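Quarterly update, task 2.4: magnesium ion-bound model.
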Amino acid sequence: MPEPPPNIDAKDLYYRLFSHLPDCLVVVDRQHRVVLSNWRGGFEDVPLDKRNGQPPCAAIFHPDDAIPFTTCPATEVFLSGRPTTREFSNSHIGTLECRAFPIFDHAGEEVDYVALHICNISDRKKLEKGLILCQKMETVSCMAAGLAHDFNNLLTVVGGFGQILQNALTEPRLREAAAAIIDAEERARKLVERLMMIGDKRPEQSERLNLNDLLRDLEELLIPLLGSQTKVDLQLDEHLDNIRGESTELEQVILNLAINARDAMPEGGRLIIVTTNLQIEEHTPLHDQGIIPGPYVLLTVHDTGHGMDDLTRERIFDPFFTTKNSDKGTGLGMSVVFSIVKRHHGHIALQSSAGKGTTIEIFLPL
Ligand code: ADP
Ligand code: MG
């Protein structure tokens, strides 16, 4: 053990070091009894009478898991004498990384104890997920842009010849067939436009604009879009700051979110759109989620619809992911929203569970 300078009480220093470690450190014996722990890193609330000497330690640290805990890292270290690392989820705390290492006897032969260093990696996991999503979107957007470009050229041919046919034909049945070709071409072109938005690499052409003005202009459109059974409620901050952005793109974001809300409320409900100013400070939960600190405008779109299950939430931004049948959903709405928000250097957050409605928050920097 490294010796501190003689004027420092080593025992006291090691004790304090142990107690002040921000992560949880636990030492267990061969019976998996907790012989020492600093009860930090989310485990502060373990009641005093449960803390020590109650085998197995799994009953204290991950009571949700089946006991005996078959993949116990401490068991592995006692058997192998080598360190190991595991990840597991705790329903109260989040994703935890557990690094277990042996504490040998004085002869350095037998493992007397195992120390478990438990660290909350929920934020890191969230960031990793965000990064994977960004990379996936980048790949897909390159593909989408290339495909959309070529497809658009083909559509010009289809539409052009469809028009020539329609003009040349006299028999009504054949004219109708030509009209159907033109109609399909127009619908396909709209789809292509959305695909192009995913891979949009145009230089930014942003203007100073106020989201409230945009929402007030859109309100007339939103009310009939949502239908008479749904109440549209705009709660706009009168002192909302201006942002830099492209109004047509931001309109597209609001419309896509509103259409999804409508589809999630077939029997009607409420669509609440809120705007507010927000200052994101350093080392706050939002900063930890990867949002750069600074002044933002926050747009919140909330619906009282059927919400989403875990799988839908995981895949919502994937292009072509849809839970709707093919005449209703293309699965491009949310990927377009994601691309536009990223183009505005913004951030998007989602809260939704089955049966509980959906809240989507869009943070747009000033
Ligand atoms: P589409 O609407 O064409 O299906 P989107 O990309 O807009 O594609 O949405 C993908 C999926 O996400 C939808 O099919 C739906 O399952 C889910 N979703 C999006 N918004 C909501 C919402 N407000 N409420 C419930 N589910 C939603
Ligand atoms: Mg949609």
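Highlight for this quarter: The first helix runs from residue 10 to 20.
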